[in-house]
Fold:
Amino acid sequence: MERRDSMPEREATKAKMSAAFLDAFNNGNLAALDEICAPDMLDHSTAATPGQPAGLQGFKQRIAGHRTGMPDLRFTLENIIIEGDLAAFQWTMGGTNTGPYLGRPASGNAVTMVGMNMERLVDGKIVEHWSYPDKLALMQQLGAIPMPATA
Structure:
């Protein structure tokens, strides 16, 4: 089976994706996503919210909501793997919930959420996006869902 991409291409795509995600989440530069996302990308994310616009605009709106709820937001990427037209990575996101977030008033709590993404790429741009965040742990940290009793 012939490979369609080379190691240098994969490494360049990893660097470009990492830079854009970090700039968007950590600095609020949502325009950075224009470099790596197709405008009509399909967002299959479990993190999508009701009423969120489709595609890239909805993804940007979701990130802006994270930054409103946690102005000190820090996002990191780990283990970016690209194979063929798919990219996968683990991520960690955290900050202090000092603004309205996910339909709730600020809790003042420091929170950390982990998750994994899968992206389908065409010509180096994300055309399909799947994100699987640990929202249960996040909602527990925000105080929206009780923490389980310890044994």
In short: The chain is about 30% helix and 35% strand. The radius of gyration is 16 Å. The beta strands are 37-43, 74-83, 86-96, 110-122, 125-133. The longest helix spans residues 7-27.
